[in-house]
């Protein structure tokens, strides 16, 4: 009997074991499913809520301030407006548009946040006369305006590692008509479903079965958003499952308005070289030069139509496909009563209306490169490419335009295709770098010679050497001798420097030796003590490149970039006050809160009286010295500058300044072969071509009570009469006025 009892007990417990087993399996599956949903929810938290998109930081030019009397032509204003993608129209302009009215121009500005001050759209009319703004009025009220600030041009962006670009719209900024059109074409049941649409899925299956291939999808807008944000485009069962559950989670957690806004910001629409354009806002700016709230029906329909296939319906590469798709969307909008018949007829008949060509990704790469380098002390590359910062700079698009035109004209003189160039233009008072090129092909984002090309500067070193000599007791009238010199170097070799013309010129004033750029007098004075002073003065500007100082440095064997030369000459032009050259004025975050403001920093490094004497000698260079070409070309203007040529004419330099504007030009070849151009025959001519287009005011020397001005004979340094034809008026410290007199020759 006991054995029977045991068998019955064993039979009765089998169902219990099975139930327990299935319960455990069910719990494991539920736990796994919960973990899976938790993981999907974690992905959504990390991307959708906290940091939905990596936003490029935008770099802005200076804001152009318009006012009566401003030297500005209508052509220049149009150029600046078109850089900001303003569209020329015939009727009253909408925001982001302008029209020509006789000799005037009427424009409607886009809203812009200037730091803490918001400036809304405004209709403004500018009247021009003889290259200036004659009057400025508010078109609505007809009131005269004393000044009006244009929103600044975007001169470039720092893109994320995924090379995506977009402008974000908030829920309040998305036009209702865009939402309606998008839903009518992509997901008519959007406001009814919970992320999945069984009817759409069944409809797509029937169409695909009938066609024998996949011709229609059943994804909702929410599913498309989930795929775009979190998943890969590959068509697998697992991806579709993930997409479905993510869509359900999105619908449970977020409002329909938030989902459709995210989709409008995320959807891929266009490719510009390596940059993928996402979102309707940026695509609208690039294709039509319009903001989304000013799109007409035909524009809206083209963008909505491109969602289905950005490559297939690209209006540049496939205009017929794009037109057909646009008209189909317009027909759907008509059927859904989103358009009246009259508007539909006009929209269908309209051309695509896109720009002639997409704007460049970064049209000013050399300047943008310098901005990024100067930002690196405060922001990492990841921050610049993800945080959507707004970087406001001193960049002047009109100066840059003139620089590029002058460069093209100047390089055309030389007929040397391999000749390279770099140019830096800065305001020497506040240190603002306003324009810059680092390659003869100005929009080529390659090697930035203005910053990276280290080349010997030749006689560009002489103004600082002259200051060192003047500060050590000499004057511009001091007698110097142009005679041979032999110097034994530490390695036993003998250095025998020569003048560029290989001639000897005897005795003369220091001023004459400087403006003629003779080498031997400066070497004579340098080895007598000027070399050490020169090295000390270079160190003050952080431009002393070597611990060991060689005599050859007196003739400019020190290598610098054009940017570094500009910093050295900034101190000279600014009376000895050092102001760091900078591109950046301020940085704000996405909420327009100021993160950083670059203050005007200036401190005295050198004696003002000494620098004024150097400035006067540099004016002499342009009047009757190696840069006398400037006196012929600009006879009514006063300019200061210095030419520079290196051994075998491998490098051609010119650095000069007018009132506030400092420009440095370098010409050379990347392989360092001779270019057969001196500073006078090469860089000086190019500098002149650029400056002629810029327009400029004469350089004015500051008053200094410690200096006395006297007329001297530059041949021998003696004081002479003002009426003497060869006399020059030069400044002298009051305790070092020349005592010898010279006959007028």
Notable characteristics:
alpha+beta; Penicillin binding protein transpeptidase fold; Beta-lactamase; 5-stranded mixed beta sheet; 22 helices
Account of the protein in words:
- By secondary structure, the protein is of the alpha+beta class.
- It has 5 domains: 63-151, Penicillin-binding protein 1b fold; 164-349, Biosynthetic peptidoglycan transglycosylase-like (Penicillin binding protein transpeptidase fold), CATH 1.10.3810.10; 389-455 and 559-699, Beta-lactamase, CATH 3.40.710; 458-557, DD-peptidase/beta-lactamase superfamily (Beta-lactamase), CATH 3.40.710.10; 705-745, no CATH class.
- Helix content is 39%, strand content 18%.
- The protein contains 22 helices and 32 strands.
- A hairpin with a 5-residue loop joins β16 (420-427) and β17 (433-437).
- α3 (176-186) packs across α9 (297-306), α10 runs antiparallel to α11 (341-349) and α16 packs across α20 (608-624).
- It starts with a helix and ends in a 12-residue tail after the last strand.
By CATH's scheme, which homologous superfamily of the largest domain applies?
DD-peptidase/beta-lactamase superfamily
Strand content: 15-25%
User: What is the CATH architecture assignment of the largest domain?
Assistant: 3-Layer(aba) Sandwich
Q: Main β-sheet, in a few words?
A: 5 strands, mixed
> End-to-end span in angstroms?
150 Å
What CATH calls the topology of the largest domain is Beta-lactamase
Strand arrangement within the widest β-sheet reads 11-1-15-25-26
Task: Please indicate the count of domains.
Answer: 5
Provide a count of the helices: 22
Helix content: 25-40%
By CATH reckoning, the class of the largest domain would read Alpha Beta
- Mean pLDDT rating: 88
Helical/strand content category: alpha+beta
Gross geometry: elongated
> What is the number of strand segments?
32
Stretches with pLDDT under 50, minimum 5 residues: 5-11
| Rg over C-alpha atoms, rounded to the nearest angstrom | 35 Å
